[in-house]
Input
Amino acid sequence: MSDGERELAGSDEHRVTPLELFFDLAFVFAFTQVTSLLVDDPTWGGVLRGMLVIAALWWAWSGFAWLTSTLDVDEGGVRLAMLASMGAMLFVALAVPGAFGDDAVLFGVVYLLVRVLHLVLYATVSRDDPDLRTALLRIVPTELLGASLLVVAGFLEGDERIGVWVVALGIDYFGPAVRGLRGWRIAPEHFAERHGLIILIALGESIIAIGVGAGLELVPGVMAAAALGIVVVSALWWLYFDVAAIFARGRLMQARGVEQARIALHSYSYLHLPMIAGIVLFALGLEAVLHDVAEALHTVPAVALCGGASLYLLGHVASLFQTTGRVFRRRTVGALVLLALIPAAVAIPALAALALVSAVCSLVVTYEAIAHREHRVQVRHPELAD
Output
């Protein structure tokens, strides 16, 4: 490692680099592939497989988010290794539609390659940092075992394959919490920004779903559904970026040591996953609405439409509780109302179901913006607090 790279290996704040944004483009494609996987198999089994793939993709991305928050990766040989990781991630995304079919082995092998490259990069970063190197060595067994089991799963079939996937992801996800967080370090502002950007990427998938679902026949019903879809996506954006992201980032910046690592792991690495999964599920439901706005939705798309938005809100509630200790009641109520709408969504026209989801999300945003407008200004503009 050069002297310049050693200087960058500290947890000092640094800007999100163009290389990190370039790296995330592979995940734009990966999320699109998951939605395609769900659309092609809109069954409960298809949803389960889609969520398992999302969980695997998310954990791979999360590992690189920790890495890039430790080191400015846009320097020296690390840049080339990041580009190689992006290339491997692209092949993971290409294999997503067949992750439980003909491309199962390919998916497992290239996914393992991505995880190995991640460990190699972290080993480079931690070479002159004994605490970080010790922390890395603690999770190497679980990270390699979890990824290796996905290769094994590729040679299995049916429920056995799904069972191995569940075990693999369980080992991967719980490894850091069980093995301990001492020695891990991040640049908190950078870390929070990276997660905000990946939420934007996921929301972009919902925009893509509108374009794909609308197709070429822009009749009034389809245009109305597209407009309502934009309203929901805008509400989901608002709920994250208006004050929630600021709350979470502030708490992460205040914390130190193991406590900071705990918040980063639980509030961000763990509890941003339901937000991402919720957005992908909502995109599935939205695309189904756009395909036939006049007919009632089938059960799985209806659950995806209402339950996806609900899961997103519940992810917010859980993440904010981890960082602030407060339960955001309006979001909790909104999530429960969305779940209660599922029976209606299978009985009324799809456009009407989307209108109801849009109304609930918009009301949560409106209530928070009006009822807490003074507190909101204080959070967003602390210089005006006096």
Summary: The two ends are 48 Å apart (CA to CA). The mean pLDDT is 88. Residues 44-70 form the longest helix (27 residues). The chain has 17 helices and no strands.
